[in-house]
Fold this protein.
Amino acid sequence: MLTVKPQRGYWCECWTEDLTDGAGWPALRASFDAHSAPQADRWVAVTLRTISPALDPDASDQAWAWLYQGRIATRRALMRSEPCTVTVTQAQTRITWTIRPVLFLPLAHRQGTELPPCTHEFKPRTPHASD
């Protein structure tokens, strides 16, 4: 039985989408579990600051606009448990970061619990000479 309650947090993802072919599906590039609104928006901010030197001028402007103005609105929305999206378009690639409020469920562990009797019947396989 689990004694730890679910923890509130934020599930963050980064997706890219190729805009040239029109039929391409977005591709998940990264995900992150944040335990606070500041940690969630910081993940996006650090990524944008890291890639901004490689972006074209329009995409760089989009990134820095969010960093200077949009980030405050994002943090406020997250504090109200609202999902947020940040999007930058670089040439023919759309990069989208999503942040959603979630409940992280604790995982069960086997510490302090009795294993079923059948586990004591298991014998590891010994390799044969031909293996």
Q: What stands out?
A: Residues 111 and 120 are 17 Å apart (CA to CA). The first strand starts at residue 7 and ends at 18.
